[in-house]
Structure formats: structure tokens, C-alpha cells
UniProtKB/TrEMBL annotation:
This is Pyridoxamine 5'-phosphate oxidase putative domain-containing protein. Keywords: Oxidoreductase. The lineage of its organism: Bacteria, Bacillati, Actinomycetota, Actinomycetes, Kitasatosporales. GO terms for cellular component: cytosol. SUPFAM superfamilies: FMN-binding split barrel. It comes from Streptomyces davaonensis (strain DSM 101723 / JCM 4913 / KCC S-0913 / 768). NCBIfam families: Rv2061_F420.
């Protein structure tokens, strides 16, 4: 059974090694990364890259962001995006691939907040708390990202 977690394996001299996950798919690689670079497009077609936190949502990726952010406005106007791994500052660390994004409802947005808190620990929980104090729960939304086949 493939679980996506590293598999312990005894290596030379009895050392325990961790092998990469068996389901090493683009979706899994992006979901397990710390940051995801979303490139959305302005009305004139200019690409705008933005680094965000990312979680796995079944066969999609989940992102949490400010509801009135420019990226949400761009995605509302044009759902096709590019996604790829990046560092904290948005510097790409791998190839970007085509995807589509949709703005989620309250229920899914709340689920993404819980997943973000679980994945990012105390930093995630503090960010969520600060956002809730400043904006309330309706001040943020989830984005569901599906990779384009």
C-alpha cells in the first residue's frame, strides 16, 4: 500500500535510511513542499508570481489567502495559472506546471485553515489567529488548485 510517506530501509552497516515516497507525483511533490509559487495573470496577460503555503486536498492542492487580495481578483477573472515549488521569497526551485484555480466556499476554506494549522504548526496557527483577528473568518478564502493533465 502506498502511503506517500518515507519508507525506512536498512542500509549499509545497519544504518537506517529513508527512501523517497513511492507516489512521487507532481501533485505529491507540490503538496509536501513548504511553499507553492502561483503564477496568475493580469487582464493584459502579464504573469504575476506569488508564494503561498500549500496543503493537499485529495486530488488537488489547497491554498489559504486574503479574500480581497489581487491574486484572488486575478483568479476570479482568469482561472488558468501556473504552479511550482519555490522558497519563502518566491524564487522558483523547480518547474512550473499548468493548473486551474477556483475560489472555495466557506466550508472548504475552513478545512484549508485547519490543514494549514496542522502542516505549519505554531507559525501557521499564529498566522491564522492574526488573520482572524484582523479580518474575521470571511476575510480569507481557500483556493482549490487542480493540475492540468
Amino acid at each position: 500500500m502506498c502511503t506517500g510517506s518515507s519508507i525506512p530501509h536498512e542500509g549499509p552497516a545497519g544504518l537506517l535510511l529513508k527512501l523517497p515516497p513511492m507516489d512521487d507525483t507532481p501533485l505529491e511533490r507540490l503538496a509536501t513542499g513548504q511553499y507553492l509559487l502561483i503564477t496568475s495573470y493580469r487582464k493584459n496577460g502579464t504573469p504575476v508570481p506569488t508564494p503561498v503555503w500549500v496543503v493537499r486536498d485529495g486530488d488537488a492542492l489547497g491554498v489559504w489567502t486574503v479574500a480581497d487580495s489581487w491574486k484572488v481578483k486575478r483568479i476570479r477573472a482568469r482561472a488558468d495559472i501556473l504552479v511550482g515549488p519555490c522558497d519563502l521569497r518566491g524564487k522558483p526551485t523547480g518547474d512550473q506546471i499548468p493548473a486551474t484555480a477556483e475560489i472555495t466556499d466557506r466550508e472548504i476554506s475552513a478545512r484549508y485553515r485547519k490543514l494549514i494549522a496542522r502542516k505549519y504548526g505554531i507559525v501557521g496557527r499564529l498566522s491564522l489567529l492574526g488573520s482572524r483577528i484582523r479580518r474575521g473568518t470571511d476575510g480569507t478564502v481557500g483556493l482549490r488548485i487542480r493540475l492540468t493533465p
